[in-house]
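User: Fold this; tokens only.

Assistant: Input:
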Amino acid sequence: MPDTVTFERTGAWDRVERILANLERDAAVAIEATLGRLGGFYEGQVQKGIVSQAPAGEPFEPLAASTILRKGSSSALIHHGDLLGAITSKVLDGAVFVGLLRTAKGREGEDLANLGEIHEFGTKDGRIPARPFLGPIAGSRRLRGRALQIAEDTFANTMYALRGR
């Protein structure tokens, strides 16, 4: 006749059960926090790229002399700062959006999303060349590595903080 082995739970099993019961909810909170941090990171990188005139190290094509004369500056995409100030990030349905909202308007009522599209891709007639300010950031391997570290840290720290309550 085989001997019977019995196990007795000792320690903080009630805490383990609570952690497991809240795991899905806590992971959702941590994912939301992570996406928010990533959005803020990329939003800042886009703004930094515009200010430096070289998003992810890719310099903008210089402005035409006539444009510089008209606006009094050689800085592309910066006139009053409306476009720069309208760059935003939003967490939507488990993803993060970084760019210009369709509702963004400049101080004179101009549609900043359309203006951003013109600068990102240029005009079909070539009068305004492409000066991409989003694409280089999204495609940067260097920034992707930093974003991965931000994601890992934010997710882990959020889960740790939630676990301790």
